[in-house]
Amino acid sequence: MFTRTQHPKETPLANAVFWAARKGNLALLQLLLNSGRVDADCRDNYGTTALMVASYSGHYDCVKELIMQGADINYQRETGSTALFFASQQGHHDVVKLLFEFGASTEFRTKDGGTALTVAAQYGRSKVVDVLLKNGANVHDRLNDGATPLFLAAQEGHVTVIRQLLSSGAKVNQAREDATAPLWMAAQMGHSEVVKVLLLRGADRDADRQDGSTALFKAALKGHNGVIEELLKFSPSLGLLKNGSSALHAAAMSGNLQTVLLLLDASADPTLPNENNQLPVDLTKSERILKVLRPRFVNGDS
């Protein structure tokens, strides 16, 4: 278990070390560290080390110098972040490899449960994800709210990373604590290519979250027609959902004519009332949408 140690008091020399690490000034860094008057593990008031700064900035030679001078590779700052976390976040795969060579661990977590892999996935750092997975990172890591690396990549639209994670055993339907699945999140964000990949890899097309909405319902509400087209290839439910409404109701509320037409063409029923006994036609003021819903309603009712 990591134990906080007291920070050495910040000094002008320590500040100079931080500056050199941030700027990648190897000559100055060596001069300062070789002077014997400043420690390689000097830290600021938040526990940030020069190694973290150099790793974040991607300065390979400075990172190596600090390691050779005895810097603690796995030290955690107040937030729980390590040098590996910062290098992973910024996509510096060469620095990540170097840190692993000298004993960096993938086990350390930030206060919100984040790891090097979760942050690399979130930022779409595919080369770093590859290095992390090859060095023992857990593809099933979860933030405190239950979000997995796959969920975070789906949220941000990082298709390459999603393919990497799925190939490494990530569970395509692993939901967050609030029952939000990667597919639902990708649909909400409008990432149609992600939705396509997740569906092809077995994502549950009708998985709903705690509010009863599905990926199709959310995409219809947002007017993400590319997502809707992908979802419709897998015959999702067009009937009433657990939230008491249908995707067509959501489409009517969105005011997006193309969304309404896509669902109607997929045989969504405009005569189906929601739990409040409202028809899709009752939920829009758009004249263009009213025109396409009313004739079908009349025909369906006759």
Automatic annotation (TrEMBL):
ANK repeat windows = 46-78, 79-111, 112-144, 145-177, 178-210, 243-275
The lineage's top-level taxon is: Eukaryota
Q: What is this protein called?
A: Ankyrin repeat domain 29
Keywords for this entry?
A: ANK repeat, Repeat
Matching Pfam families: Ank_2 (PF12796)
Matching PANTHER family: ANKYRIN REPEAT CONTAINING (PTHR24173), ANKYRIN REPEAT DOMAIN-CONTAINING PROTEIN 16 (PTHR24173:SF74)
Spell out the InterPro entries in the cross-references.
Ankyrin_rpt, Ankyrin_rpt-contain_sf
Report TM segments.
none
